[in-house]
Amino acid sequence: MTGDGVHVEVVLPGSLADLAGGTRHLQVDPEGATLAAVLDAVAAQHPVLGRRIRDEAGAVRRFVNVYVDGEDVRWQGGLATAVRDGAVVQVLPSVAGG
Amino acid sequence: MTDLLAIGTRKGLWLARSDDDRRTWTLDGPHLLAQEVAAVSVDTRRAVPRVLAGVQYGHWGPSVTWSDDLGGSWQETDHGAIRFPEDTGAALGRVWQLRPDTADRPDLVWAGCEPQSLWRSTDGGCSFTLVRGLWDHPHRPTWEPGAGGGAVHTVLPDPATDRVTVAMSTGGVYASDDGATGWAPRNKGISAVFLPEPPEYGQCVHKVAVDAGDPARMYAQNHFGVFRTDDGGGSWVSIADGLPADFGFPIAASPTAPGTAWVVPLVADVQRVPPDGRLRVHRTRDAGGSWTEVGAGLPDGAWTAVLRDAFCTDDHERTGLYLGTRDGCVYASADEGETFTLVAEHLPDVLVVRAARLP
Description:
The structure holds two protein chains of two kinds. Chain A is α+β, with helices and mostly antiparallel strands. Chain A has one domain: Beta-grasp domain (Ubiquitin-like (UB roll)). Chain A has helices at residues 35-45, 47-53; strands at residues 8-11, 25-28, 64-68, 71-72, 88-93. In chain A, helix 1 (35-45) crosses helix 2. In chain A, 31% of the residues are buried. Helix content of chain B is 1%, strand content 38%. Chain B has a four-stranded antiparallel sheet, with no helix packed on it. The radius of gyration of chain B is 19 Å and the shape is globular. By secondary structure, chain B is mainly β. Chain B contains one helix and 27 strands. The interface between A and B is medium-sized, with 18 and 17 residues.
């Protein structure tokens, strides 16, 4: 473990698994206890995956939903949402498109 | 010699090939299925041709990807080929145009993007640098997005000089004479029916094409109005007389026959369909002095449209013409638009077509 000693599981949709080396479950040790730090750690391991989730300005893409322990971060602290040790961060595509 | 036609759609890319001088075509695809391909180019300047695509991965954002084996495999740059610098606070919305420069400028590729921005690559499209002169232009905060979004959708590097011309909706035509450093609007004479006075800039230009005989002569299809300039955009005159409608999205010029260009008129503003549902091409051979309806083989009862990049030429001596519709049909002409044959049907909405000859 590094930083704040937080270990997090990131759960991905199947459509992103290829970009994570074929797995839907990533284990990350972020350099901080926030969602932003978790996503930074994901991007450091898998840069293309990181770009699918956030744009280059750092914002979570419009039609991407992120949940921390089951709570939509849009209604929490956004990228500043606190992430506890052992948290599960889930990335899901929203209902959109056609 | 194989003719290749790249067909970008709202849900993937198809590649059509012809080995009999464009008479019959074999369709290969989908590639990049479920991904919107709004920009594509086939860069034949390389040892092996590169298909370069601007894609939108559905929920997962835009990117540039390329294939050096004609769609067999695709690559993209880890951190994104087009990435706004941090100080801009901007993020890439969509890649609208990928334009390889001339053969004597190998590896130079231009990209036009949303938000309105121009990008330059010197490594064949693997990575691009923001053209700051246009991004920092004092007009930029007042460029409004058109219905499809605010984007640089046309990039026209002059083959003989350092001039680069771009077109954007809205914003109009801008040009640089010093290799894309300084930029100035070039819209004098172009009307904008949605603005009270003819403006210096802000026109909704849909597409610009360069004449075969003189790079300073260009043709523009606008959101109402078809225009020509003979002085690199210094002034424009209407050339819409003789057309059944002056609205449309694309315009194409022959790369070999001076004075020859084509438009696809649509009734507008609300309908945006071919007049009487007859999908036809109109051709001029005298730089817009007169127009002739052509396009035998194109359908009647076609209540569809051809978008700005879904129309292109090839570089045969007798120019071929390619056209894709919003209802997923693609047509090819080997005789300057006189006759068309069906290349594909029932594809998703066609956003872009680009033709190339492979060795």
